[in-house]
């Protein structure tokens, strides 16, 4: 039921956004590798985020409050195990248009919730038999980073991003995302 509420909120924001401010509604897709930077021993994984927000002009800057819904698959280095996370983050990006406004660097801060799932295949007592152990847990997620977009078309931005992510579960974990993004301005 919670995901239905989130989808309804995104739809309502998308429909109501043109009446809210002069900047405009934006929807984006981000693709990135997940690179561990602490001593967890993981290998590189993969992530996908979908985000939406509304840009508001403020003193030559664009402020974009946004909602991010994403999925991360963490590299474990072992084909018998996997770990992934669904995350829902709120936050904002501050965009600093340069020159004619086609080049747009931005600072990004998001924070929210992550649902971690892990799965591991364990050898059984009988040869050829495998037992499966699964676990899940919730964590807080904080992401701080930057982005650089280029207005390839009037309404289409393409670019890249980098983010430092911190998971609050247990002793915490750090990972880096470096990737590509495409944003459509309505």
Number of separate helices: 1
Strand sequence of the main sheet, in spatial order?
1-2-3-4-5-6-7-8
Low-confidence stretches: 15-22
- Average pLDDT metric: 84
What is the overall silhouette?
elongated
Question: Biggest sheet, open or closed, and with what strands and sense?
Answer: 8 strands, antiparallel, barrel
What is the percentage of strand-forming residues?
Answer: over 45%
Provide the helix percentage.
under 10%
Give the ordered list of helices and strands: HEEEEEEEE
- The whole-angstrom Rg is 19 Å
Q: Calculate the terminal CA-CA distance, rounded to whole Å.
A: 28 Å
Class per helix and strand makeup = mainly beta
Total number of beta strands:
8
Explain what you see:
The protein is mainly beta and 186 residues long. 8% of the residues lie in helices and 68% in strands. It contains 1 helix and 8 strands. The protein has one helix spanning 2-16, and strands at 24-36, 43-58, 61-75, 81-95, 103-123, 130-151, 156-167, 173-185. It has an 8-stranded antiparallel barrel. Strand 5 (103-123) and strand 6 (130-151) form a beta hairpin. The radius of gyration is 19 Å and the shape is elongated.
